[in-house]
Structure prediction request, 274 residues.
Amino acid sequence: MKLKKLKISSCLLACIISTFVGSLVISQQARADDAAELAKKLQNPVAALISVPVKVDWDTGIGSADADRTTYTIQPVIPIDLNPKWNIISRTIVPVYIDAESPVAGGSNTYGMGDIVQSFFFSPKAPTARGLIWGVGPVLSLPTGADGLTSDKFSVGPTGLVLKQANGWTYGMLASQSWSISGDDDRTDVNSTFLQPFLSYTTKTHTTFGVNTESTYDWNAEEWTVPVNATVSQLVKIGRQPISLQVGYRNYVDAPDGGPDWGLRFQVTFLFPK
Prediction:
């Protein structure tokens, strides 16, 4: 009888251990799947994911003084549930502080806030039959910058993007066009096009390698500014808070007379999944 009870107890213990190990494996797999989905959403500018990137851009080789410029930016992205089929994605670029050395020797440095750029994308929640993700809407530029760091113009225009994700790859294009509609009459009107083609690959360890350009064409001056960015980022968790850490190098393949020549980027993105 004791032997029979011992066998039953051993079987029960084995079942408990097996269930615990199985649950642990499933839990770890679920966390891995969640992290993979989060890393994928990070590469999608219109994903239904609240994120707050905080970045520092440093550029050098500006003007005859070979000056530096450092820009500190907060860029919150907030999805708004419009209905069962559509989201509105709010993307706000806030250059909270710019420290620009004088481009000429003996000149005065310029520092302060820059102009805020606000975009809204109307985007379907599901990709198209071909797997395309897209969004369109308005973009607004608000003249919030300090003297020497603002256009002094209120500008509006259309913006849109299209992208595809498959097998760890994300590729697509974001574009916008802005025209000034009010502001200081003594300042040059705004007529600029922004183009950002992008390509990235995310590994199974949630490391992402990316390349893009953040190109601007000034139709008044007929000048391109074309920085090519190469970045690497890693998704990690600090406690329960998922964040993405990114470093990048950029080279200006085209720029107005006076540079800049090249620069670096450091970015921390705080993620708030549902």
Q: What stands out?
A: The domain at 2-272 is CATH 2.40.160.40 (Porin).
